[in-house]
Specification:
The complex is a heterodimer.
Chain A: H1 9-28, H2 30-48, H3 57-74, H4 92-98, H5 106-117, H6 122-129, H7 133-151
Chain B: H1 5-17, E1 23-28, E2 35-40, E3 43-48, H2 53-64, E4 68-70, H3 76-87, H4 104-113, E5 122-123, H5 124-130, H6 137-145, E6 158-159, H7 172-181
Parallel strand pairs in B: 1-4, 5-6
Antiparallel strand pairs in B: 1-2, 2-3
Helix pairs in contact in B: 5-6
Classes of the chains: A mainly alpha, B alpha/beta.
Chain lengths: 153, 185
């Protein structure tokens, strides 16, 4: 797929850093948001070279941020509260899939939304979720199977 | 919402220390004006008198990869050597150079150029002769004009056969300043 060119990282960082910090502040509070901010952009740097195109970079980096925040919350909160960690900014593709993906785990939901809402490759999704490509593919397919089962009921 | 300066700096430092950037840059002050300085893991990639960052970023991404980040810390060695050069205490640079993506002829001319001693000048024709292409003075001029790493690769030390300064991509005033600093004029 020949998409939008990948911008030099500096421009990507300058464009999205405020949105990332805003999301992390909402999810984690000031004290923990700053470490998570650094972690988010270090993960993005690590994955940046493997990007295939420059589309949907905002949702891509916000997904990384959400995963970093979920990891941070997991270290301090019991697991069953995590499902309530919700997306905050306005995202049309997410909105469309929101009702369908409601019952999925955060990882499955992220994988399904990034794959089918934003048309990202599994490689990019893996980078966003900080997992392997196989795990990303698995999360998306488990998610889709779960949705199908519910829709067909 | 703006990012706290301290948070921004910590991220940039960490990225540089962890080696996660393809090429780091910063703007470095000097007596001949601000310099855009870029460094990759292979070495000094670019010095430019043109400090319009956005245009430089695209060029660097093409040369070294998309992970181009302003990271002052990664440029510290280059900054220090340049400061020493402009203070007159350094006559040769120890920085390694990233000459990636340059044609063979260009690289051989630049390697010859690097041997022209501090405070001395040579001519386009002499340089051409030294790379075994005595009639390629004009092509050598083009290489000087496009030199990606001026000052460190001293194209300011190359003059016309009559001693005329001829030209300098950074402007003749800068060429004169550098030659005066080195006591070559």
């Amino acid at each position: 797929m020949q998409g939008v060119a990948i911008p030099p990282f500096e421009l990507f960082y300058e464009e999205h850093r405020a949105a990332v910090l805003r999301q992390l502040l909402q999810m984690l509070g000031r004290e923990r948001a700053e470490d998570a901010f650094q972690e988010t952009f270090l993960r993005a740097l690590q994955a940046y070279r493997r990007l295939e195109h420059g589309e949907h970079l905002r949702s891509w980096v916000l997904t990384i941020a959400r995963n970093v925040a979920v990891d941070a919350l997991r270290r301090t909160k019991p697991a069953d509260e995590l499902v309530e960690v919700a997306a905050d900014d306005h995202r049309p593709a997410y909105e469309e899939l929101a009702s369908l993906t409601d019952g999925l785990s955060p990882k499955e939901r992220a994988a399904v939304v990034l794959r089918y809402g934003y048309d990202l490759s599994y490689e990019q999704i893996a980078a966003a979720l900080d997992s392997s490509e196989d795990a990303a593919r698995q999360a998306a397919s488990t998610g889709v199977r779960r949705i199908r089962r519910r829709v067909s009921k | 919402m703006t990012i706290p300066a301290d948070l921004d700096r910590r991220f940039r430092d960490a990225a540089a220390v962890l080696g996660l950037v393809d090429v780091a840059f910063d703007v470095v002050g000097s007596p001949v004006g601000d310099l855009f300085v870029a460094v990759s893991e292979r070495g000094l990639t670019e010095i430019s008198y043109d400090t319009r960052v956005e245009e430089q970023l695209e060029l660097l991404a093409r040369i070294a990869g998309p992970r181009v980040l302003r990271a002052p810390r990664a440029v510290d060695d280059a900054r220090r050597e340049l400061d020493e050069y402009f203070a007159g205490t350094r006559h040769a640079f120890d920085l390694s150079l990233d000459l990636r993506a340059l044609p063979t002829f260009t690289v051989s001319v630049l390697r010859e150029l690097a041997r022209v001693p501090y405070g001395e000048t040579t001519t386009y024709g002499e340089l051409a002769a030294r790379v075994g292409r005595p009639r390629a003075a004009r092509a050598v001029g083009t290489v000087m004009n496009r030199n990606r790493i001026p000052i460190v690769l001293p194209c300011h030390r190359v003059v016309g056969s009559t001693g005329d300064l001829v030209g300098y991509a950074g402007g003749l005033d800068r060429k004169i300043s550098l030659l005066e600093l080195e006591g070559a004029r």
